[in-house]
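Form 7-S
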Amino acid sequence: MNDGRDRTLVILCVFCVAVIGIAGIWLAFPNGERQDRDILFQVSTIGALMEGNYRGVVPFGEIRKHGDFGIGTFDSLDGEMIAVNGEYFQVTADGAVLPVPDGALTPFATVTFFEPDFTFFLSRADNFSDFSRQVERSLPSKDQIYAVRIPGKFPYVRARSVPRQEEPYPRLVDAARNQSVFILEGTRGTMAGLWFPEAFDGLNVPGFHIHYISDDRKAGGHVLDFSLENATIEIDATPRFLVTLTPAGGNATGLSGPNSTELAGVEQGG
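Output:
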């Protein structure tokens, strides 16, 4: 009699442990799949975008599954995208800041789940170039991809957005000539950006590529220049990089590197 009760008790205990384990897995990964939070996910390439591949093909409902932080653009190059703390925003050419619906489409976006690996304090940077020099000296490796988040007050930000383009799409260097530029002074907000090694030229922008969103969600855009004081720089090293290539809705797949002079001009607003 005691042996039978003991076996029943053991079976019940094993069953309970199994149920608890399955429940724990479901709570951690409700879709039944483990999220890789240490990977950078990207739609298309900067080379394709430079050549006019602006047709949105991936909905932001899908993009959200791959990250809570990142930058990108929208179907037909309709503004700048920035994601911080799981909130996705569109900065349009007229300066409006709009929440991004799941059904909106992107031709190019790069996102990750931001979890800083290290931080450091930067007392002052007079401009974008000064910021880049100081931060790059602090990066542990120049062969690594980094996501960068900078919350704080910014004395000066020069940002831009580009108006929606019509087919046949022009190349990005031509579309950017009609950009809207916003001068922001003394705003509080968050810089969200990426740093890529030179070896990734053609896939993404070598060096820093940064977007900005103000805390009041009334201003932002692609950052052309800025200054900062007494800021904490948060760095997330991303050892894995996944690119999903899209059908070329513009003029090229963009696997070859873009013209570096043209890319620099687009990034810096020149």
